[in-house]
Amino acid sequence: MPHTGSCLCGAAKFTVATPIAETYACHCEMCRKWSGGIALAFETPPDGLTIDAGDTIKTYASSEWGERSFCTACGSGLYFRMIAPGPQHGTYYVNLGALDDPSGIPLTGELFIDIKPDGYALEGDHQRITGEEFFAMIEAASAPKD
Ligand SMILES: [Zn+2]
Ligand SMILES: [Zn+2]
Fold first, then answer.
1. Confidence band (pLDDT; 50, 70, 90) for 93?
2. CA of 114 to the centre of ligand 2 (A)
3. pTM above 0.90, yes or no
4. Rounded Cα distance, 86 and 83, in Å
5. What does the pLDDT average to over 70-75?
6. SS3 call for 41
């Protein structure tokens, strides 16, 4: 079953056609500022996300890595898109909270655990990696292979 999602005011709507097997939390400063809280997102391939209503969606290039799209009518964050070259180019990281029904999707990892704010912790036996470990993984994934 495809998942549907929207912003708070409902002007922006989308459908995710691909299965959502997992979600992760990112505690990096940009995701924290972007979400205003705990950033939770799930990965969707470039052709997995369809925008059903997008007139109010604006996109902000938050870094050379990616851009973040949000609804200009209500301010809800919707998704991050990887624009850096490499295997993840074009991949969407959709905000879990924007789904109409986010139930049943397990949390499988936390990124930038070393800079997580002190006032909360996510329970469960999942992967927790530091910013340094995250960047090492990205470098390994995008290194030319021979
Ligand atoms: Zn909206
Ligand atoms: Zn982040």
1. very high
2. 12
3. yes
4. 9
5. 98
6. strand
Mean pLDDT, residues 17-21: 95
Any idea which ligand is nearest the CA of 112? Answer: 2
Asked if 98 and 5 count as a contact pair (C-beta separation under 8 A), the reply is yes
Mean pLDDT, residues 105-125 taken together: 96
Compute φ and ψ for 134, nearest 5 degrees: -60, -50
Contacts of 34 (CB under 8 A, 6+ apart): 62, 68, 77, 80
d(C-alpha 76, C-alpha 103), whole Å: 19
How far away, in angstroms, is 37 Cα from ligand 2 center?
12
Ligand lying nearest the CA atom of residue 77? 1
What is the CATH T-level fold of the domain 3-142, as seen in this structure? Answer: 2.170.150
CB atoms within 10 A of CB 86: 12
What are residue 28's DSSP bridge partners? none
> What's the 80 CA to ligand 2 centre distance in angstroms?
9
pLDDT higher than 80, residue 57? yes
Is the four-CA dihedral 74, 75, 76, 82 of positive or negative sign? positive
